[in-house]
Amino acid sequence: MKNKILVLGSLTLLSASLLVMNSCNSLPKGLKTIQDFDKNKYLGSWYEIARLDFVFEKNLNNTTAEYSLNEDGSIKVVNRGYNFIKNKYVASTGKVKFAGDSNEGKLKVSFFGPFYSGYNIIALDSDYKYALVAGESLKYLWLLSREKTMPNNIKETYLKTAKDLGYNTSELIWVKHN
């Protein structure tokens, strides 16, 4: 009987965890994603200019993301970076889907099977050269550029936007591209 209760409790906890992990429709308070998003214009290579560090990108420089279309209309993403501690390049391939309307920058990304996380484009210039991307909480933030650098005026605008939303921009990791 005791084992059945432990198994039932474990299954309930696992189910609740999966539900929370698979739910990426939440956004940090006050955050709005861009409208009139064109996924085809977003495809291609992006350089990571800055990020709030987290376990999957720890010790990485020269980080990039390459977006392309899958046959099913979803987006394939290949993230690459150089681990300067292990002295080697690492890569991870994921799948991006819309979490809302297809013309909204509210997306979700998965690198681990059925588990998705929020990928929310909160600022994007009209030429699709610079982007500010937020995760589903204030722990995840990226500044992206089509080039290895970002003009100071764009960077300052994006930093102000992030700070106004509650992000601690002093904790950003500024990525080296060499």
UniProtKB/TrEMBL annotation:
Question: May I ask which residue range the UniProt record assigns to the signal sequence?
Answer: 1-26
Q: Give a Gene Ontology cellular component term annotated to this protein.
A: cell outer membrane
The UniProt record lists the keyword Methyltransferase = no
Could you tell me the membrane topology recorded for this protein?
Lipid-anchor
Any single biological process term in GO: response to stress
Lipid-acceptor residues (N-palmitoyl cysteine): C24
Gene Ontology molecular functions: lipid binding
Please give the sites of covalent lipid attachment annotated as S-diacylglycerol cysteine: C24
Task: Give the top-rank taxon of the lineage listed in the UniProt record for this protein.
Answer: Bacteria
Record domain Lipocalin/cytosolic fatty-acid binding: where: 38-176
Q: Which SUPFAM superfamilies match?
A: Lipocalins
Q: Name one Pfam family in it.
A: Lipocalin_2
List locations, semicolon-separated: Cell outer membrane; Membrane
Keywords of this entry: Cell outer membrane, Lipid-binding, Lipoprotein, Membrane, Palmitate, Signal
Complexes and interactors: Homodimer.
Q: Which family does it belong to?
A: Belongs to the calycin superfamily. Lipocalin family.
Biological role stated in the UniProt entry: Involved in the storage or transport of lipids necessary for membrane maintenance under stressful conditions. Displays a binding preference for lysophospholipids.
Record's protein name: Outer membrane lipoprotein Blc
